[in-house]
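Intended use. Records like the one below are meant for learning the mapping from a protein sequence to its folded structure. Do not use them to infer anything beyond what is encoded.
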Amino acid sequence: MELWTSRALARGAAYAPPMALPWLLYGATGYTGELIARRAVAAGERPVLAGRRAVAVGALAAELGLESRAFDLHDAPALEVLSTILAGGRASRLYRDLVYQRQLALEAGGDYSYFAIDPNLFWFWATPMPGQTAETLEKELIAHMDRLKSEPVTEEELARAKNQIEAAMVFQEDSIHRRASLLARFEVIGGFTLKDSFIARIRAVTAADLTRVASTWFAPDKKSIGILQPKE
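Structure written out for the chain above:
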């Protein structure tokens, strides 16, 4: 397996051979990842092996004589629960506060992808009601983030979010195609067997975990703000 830089060739120009680039193989201990790693070494490549499980990745790298990197995404379950509490339907915090109760926004939400290969973005968004401004909603969204850092979520919110996530997982297995797709998504992030522990990891999340990850990941110096304005 080889990764090359792309080069445009003008008609009549002299050919320049492609230049090999160093590359990283994430999910190296999964079934497909390990096959790729072994084929790459057989082809003379030297990828850096990476994954979530440091011991397993290190063992495979040592066997193949390669470097390894571990990216422990242990906060992913807590961020998944936090995403559901903030934006999981009409009972979520953002919808209930900004859309239903105070009617500052036409819609509001947030999202975190559990299945991201690398640490991912946590999105917040809101569409202002007529007469409201983007700056007002920006302040409101930041206030919700700050509240999560200082005030534990209620047991009712926590239980409801976990039930929503578990129910969504069950519904994703209603056909052979969707089961296969789900296994493939877990394979990409480190191995299809991770699916077996997903619900247990979600159930183990506590209110204290949510406060901790909010303080860690919602730091002011980590945020980026974008405002989309319609054409006048």
